[in-house]
């Protein structure tokens, strides 16, 4: 009789054992198969000195990881640079960067070249007349290029007595002159807008999307 009671007690205890095992199994499974924390992605940008971080900002053509500096994009009309970053070779976006002065002479080494080089000390006239990678992209006009008769700080191709805009472009878009004034509507805004006629001083002091990217200084 005692053996019968013992067997009955053992049978009754089995569900409790299985239930206890069942309770612990899901916890272990959940722990093992839980979601893996997502890796934080850092969007490319420029640091305070204008150097690319995480590949630099996305280009106007949608490309990423171009590793182009702010001064390069400020002086070169390159689609791999972000929209609104080009301000023209007469403008400096950092005190350590070069540019052309009002007379087209290199200041602090001159603007950044199309090949990314700096400190080339090339004049605007030389770059307008020579296809040199040390000159900024879009600066070449032709071997007979002359200063624009309208007095604006860029060069045009002269054919006989009639001077026309060059096939290569040469700053035909808006930009800032050496004094920070808007020429041909001024540079393209960070929002892609054109013809805003905003001065460099205004853009340095105001966070306006119609100003070029990186122009705000605070």
Automatic annotation (TrEMBL):
Protein name: Mesocentin
Signal peptide: 1-19
Lineage of source species: Bacteria, Bacillati, Actinomycetota, Actinomycetes, Mycobacteriales
Region (Disordered) location: 24-71, 92-122, 186-218
Record bears the keyword Signal: yes
Cross-referenced PROSITE patterns: PROKAR_LIPOPROTEIN
Record field: compositional bias (Polar residues): 26-41, 104-122
Keyword entries, A-Z: Signal
Source organism, top-level taxon: Bacteria
